[in-house]
Each structure stands twice: as structure tokens, then as C-alpha cells.
Specification:
With 327 residues, this protein is mostly beta strands. It has helices spanning 2-15, 35-38; strands at residues 49-60, 67-79, 82-95, 98-113, 116-131, 134-138, 152-157, 161-173, 177-184, 190-197, 207-212, 216-223, 225-226, 231-241, 246-256, 260-267, 272-280, 283-291, 297-309. It has a 14-stranded antiparallel β-barrel with strand order 1-2-3-4-5-8-9-12-14-15-16-17-18-19. The chain has a 4-stranded antiparallel β-sheet with strand order 6-7-10-11, with no helix packed on it.
């Protein structure tokens, strides 16, 4: 009983966390379907092979709206009488001519703890940061003023850079409860930006700036409440924090007969998402619509597909044969 009260207190505190702003790691609506992307300790945490694809499209008031794709695949395995997990993560984010991508491998050590499993994960990969050189139109008060005569041009060049990226996490998973904490971009990869401008921006001419991917911390927790034999309510919370910003999402998800699901998510910027999903022949599909009340993003559309299958699917099946004595 004390254990449940402890987790309930943590859940409540994170639900009332402070307001957030833009971050390097923008959140997705189906964060519980992409747990291994944010926390490598969830790689292979289930006794099956899991593959997930998440696509997010954000409508904004500017051209070339942001798009993001997250692909994950992971599986458990046994070695030296110990349980382990391995995984693969592929990420691609496009905002105009900006192209960021990540390819990473994951390892997870699993140990029985109480009624569940303690998972300790490590992720190593390569971030590919690329920006196509070109002119960007800068409009004074561009979101409020539509007078195009005040356009100013700024040339920005970001040297293509590949940097190593390291993340780590820990989690505990049980039959009805899971909780995890991770550190993304633990090594805070460095890269350089360079800008060259015209007469309108004399202070930025031939200026070079060192920048870095900020270290971020992720907390996630969820619990399954069984109302009836086929109906479950699954409250979840997800918190993303970096050096000076915090974002929180609290979700109430309902699932019926392990086939149909739906619910709502509220976040700390007063945005909200509604989502629904279904399972067809082992494939789980879902869609989420998010309405943004602040910033240049009007709304977001998100799709995900997931397919899980057992490891036995790859094992050769014994073919029936007849004994020669019976012939």
C-alpha cells in the first residue's frame, strides 16, 4: 500500500509541473508507444519483438512545416543465464531546409526485482545535423505584421556535422505498472553555426558560434486500472526537462478488449490532444490530433503503427514425419 501511495504522490507532482517552452526534443502525442526512443531501458522490456513507427506533421503559419519520423525496433534475449534487450532507433526531423537525423543502437540489462523487472539501458548513436545554405526572409513582427515591404534577408550557413550521441535510462516494468527515468544527449554533442549577413545585420558578419545539443531528462509512468474483464483505464504521465525548460503531458487512455483505444492528453502549455486507435491482425494503428493554443504551430497530426510478434516466429518448426517401421 505504501508503494502505491509513493507512486501516486510522484504522479501528482509531475502533473502540476511548471509551464514549458520550445525544446530540442519536441514531444510526440503517442509518447507511450515510443518509450524506447526517449529511454533505452525500455528496449526489449517485453518478451516479444516490437516495432513502431510514428509520424508527426505540424501545421504552422510559415512555409515548410515541421515533420518528424521515429522508428524503433527492439527485442529481448538471454545470454549467460541473464536477460538482456537490444534495440535500434532511427529519427528524422525536417523543418524547412533543416535536416536532423539520428541512428542509434541500444542495449538493456534486465534483472528481476520484486514482481517486475528492473531495466538499465544505454544508447549510442550518431546525430547528423545538416542545413542547406540559402536565404531566409526575416520579417519584423512577422506573426503580426503581413507587410512584405519590410522584408530583410539573412544568409545562414550551418556546416554539416556528424556528432556522437549518448543516452542512458533506468526503468521498472510490471504487469500493470511501469516507471522510467532517462538522460538524453548525456555527452551534450557540440556543433558550430556560422552566419553571414548583409548591411542590415552588420553585427553578425562572419560570426561563428559554438552550440550544443542540450542534455534533457525524461520521466514516464503509467498504470493499468481494470474496470471490467475487457475494459481498462490507463493513466500516464510524461515529463521532459532540460537546463531551463520543462514540459509535462498527462494522459487518460481507455482500452477495450485489447483492440480499441482512445483518450485525451493535456500538457503544461494548455494544449490538448485527442487520440484513437485499433488493432487489426496484429497491427496496432493510431491517430492523434493536437490543438496548440500558443506559438506559431496551429495544430499537429500524428500517426503511428506498431507490430509485435513472438521470438518463436523465427524458430524453425518441426515437420511431422512417419516412422519407417509403420510403412
Amino acid at each position: 500500500m505504501k508503494k502505491r501511495q509513493f507512486f501516486l504522490i510522484i504522479f501528482t507532482l509531475f502533473c502540476i509541473a511548471t509551464k514549458s517552452h520550445a525544446q530540442w526534443e519536441a514531444p510526440v502525442s503517442h509518447y507511450w508507444e515510443a518509450k524506447s526512443y526517449y529511454n533505452p531501458s525500455f528496449a526489449g522490456a517485453k518478451d516479444q519483438i516490437s516495432t513502431t513507427a510514428v509520424y508527426q506533421y505540424q501545421r504552422t503559419v510559415i512555409k515548410d512545416s515541421p515533420q518528424r519520423i521515429i522508428l524503433t525496433a527492439n527485442m529481448p534475449f538471454d545470454f549467460l543465464k541473464r536477460k538482456h534487450g537490444v534495440g535500434l532507433v532511427v529519427y528524422s526531423g525536417n523543418i524547412g531546409s533543416l535536416r536532423n537525423s539520428l541512428l542509434a543502437a541500444q542495449y538493456n540489462f534486465r534483472q528481476q526485482l520484486g514482481t517486475g523487472m528492473l531495466n538499465i539501458g544505454l544508447q549510442t548513436g550518431v546525430y547528423d545535423l545538416s542545413y542547406d545554405s540559402g536565404n531566409i526572409g526575416i520579417f519584423p513582427d512577422s506573426l503580426q505584421n503581413s507587410n512584405l515591404q519590410n522584408n530583410q534577408q539573412l544568409n545562414i550557413n550551418l556546416t554539416k556535422k556528424q556528432v556522437a550521441d549518448i543516452s542512458a535510462g533506468i526503468s521498472w516494468t510490471g504487469n500493470r505498472f511501469f516507471v522510467g527515468l532517462s538522460i538524453m544527449h548525456f555527452n551534450q554533442p557540440l556543433f558550430y553555426t556560422a552566419s553571414d549577413s548583409g548591411n542590415n545585420f552588420p553585427n553578425t558578419s562572419t560570426d561563428s558560434t559554438q552550440s550544443q545539443i542540450p542534455r534533457s531528462y525524461n520521466f514516464i509512468a503509467g498504470y493499468n486500472i481494470r474496470l471490467l474483464n475487457s475494459l481498462e483505464i490507463q493513466p500516464m504521465v510524461w515529463v521532459l526537462h532540460d537546463e531551463n525548460q520543462t514540459q509535462t503531458q498527462a494522459t487518460v487512455k481507455m482500452e477495450y478488449d485489447k483492440r480499441f483505444s482512445g483518450g485525451i492528453t493535456l500538457n503544461s502549455e494548455s494544449d490538448y490532444s485527442v487520440f484513437a486507435g485499433t488493432t487489426i491482425q496484429g497491427f496496432r494503428f493510431g491517430y492523434a490530433y493536437t490543438l496548440h493554443n500558443k506559438g506559431i504551430v496551429k495544430d499537429s497530426h500524428e500517426l503511428f503503427v506498431r507490430y509485435d510478434f513472438t521470438i518463436d516466429s523465427f524458430k524453425p518448426k518441426m515437420k511431422p514425419h512417419k516412422s519407417i517401421r509403420l510403412l
